[in-house]
């Protein structure tokens, strides 16, 4: 069983924009608009940042945006701030018979330079 | 305010058992799917199990099928995870989480702070 594929690390300077990719298959990312993104600071629980590809929960900064093209989803953080330094995980519902019903990405460490 | 508070973690020997609990508040517990998600030390997130609002449907990741049982008590606003035949690879922080969806969980929106389970002799 394989998780969704994310880059291990992405970095940027304050004020810049960065994009994190999340690659799956037609059975998960490509097949449904059920991609979510989570932010996790060290020692803390994950926090939902984006759901259903591009929707932001109440209270999440509009500097965070999501999109999808084919089997790859993306999270963009604009106007990068020091507090954005964290691990980010994508997730998706999946209908694959070889994967769990809910699959996470491998995770991306975002570093603010 | 949605709150999920896990308890029951600890150190257990390989082959042993442990029961995790999660106390939910701030929302109508019986109206939501609930999930357990785990994270091994220094590793990524792994979905473990889902349970439907009325407990009639339960789903598990293959690695825990036959060993773990998810259950809920809507009268007590509580979620449980009975873990048997524990292995070293089950060592992780276990998160209780709320799921959104109709026939399945399509997004997990709230998470507890987690409880650490360590399987070691």
Q: What does it look like?
A:
The complex is a heterodimer of chains A (113) and B (121). Chain A is an all-beta fold and 113 residues long. Chain A is built from no helices and nine strands. Chain A starts with 8 loop residues before the first strand and ends with a strand. Chain B has 121 residues and is mainly β. Chain B is built from no helices and eleven strands. Chain B has strands spanning 3-7, 10-12, 18-25, 33-39, 45-51, 58-60, 68-73, 78-83, 92-100, 107-111, 115-119. In chain B, strands 2, 4, 5, 6, 9, 10 and 11 form a seven-stranded mixed sheet that branches. A four-stranded antiparallel sheet of chain B has the order 1-3-8-7, with no helix packed on it. Classes of the chains: A mainly beta (113), B mainly beta (121). Chains A and B meet through strand 7 and strand 8 of A and strand 5 and strand 10 of B.
């Amino acid at each position: 069983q394989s998780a969704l594929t994310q880059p291990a690390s992405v970095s940027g300077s304050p004020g810049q924009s960065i994009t994190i990719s999340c690659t799956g298959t037609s059975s998960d990312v490509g097949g449904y608009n059920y991609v979510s993104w989570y932010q996790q600071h060290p020692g803390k629980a994950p926090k939902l940042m984006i759901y259903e590809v591009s929707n932001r929960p109440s209270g999440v900064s509009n500097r965070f945006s999501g999109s999808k093209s084919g089997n790859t989803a993306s999270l963009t953080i604009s106007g990068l701030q020091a507090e954005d330094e964290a691990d980010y995980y994508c997730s998706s519902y999946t209908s694959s018979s070889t994967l769990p019903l809910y699959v996470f990405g491998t995770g991306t460490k975002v570093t603010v330079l | 305010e949605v709150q999920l508070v896990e308890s029951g973690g600890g150190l257990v020997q390989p082959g042993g058992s442990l029961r995790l609990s999660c106390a939910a508040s701030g929302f109508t517990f019986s109206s939501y799917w609930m999930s357990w998600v785990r994270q091994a030390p220094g590793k990524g997130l792994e979905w473990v199990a889902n349970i439907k609002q009325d407990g009639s449907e339960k789903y598990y990741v293959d690695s825990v099928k036959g060993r773990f049982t998810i259950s809920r008590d809507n009268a007590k606003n509580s979620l449980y995870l009975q873990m048997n035949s524990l292995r070293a690879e089950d060592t992780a922080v276990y998160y209780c989480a709320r799921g959104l969806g109709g026939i399945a969980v399509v997004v997990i929106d709230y998470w507890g702070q987690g409880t650490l389970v360590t399987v070691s002799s």
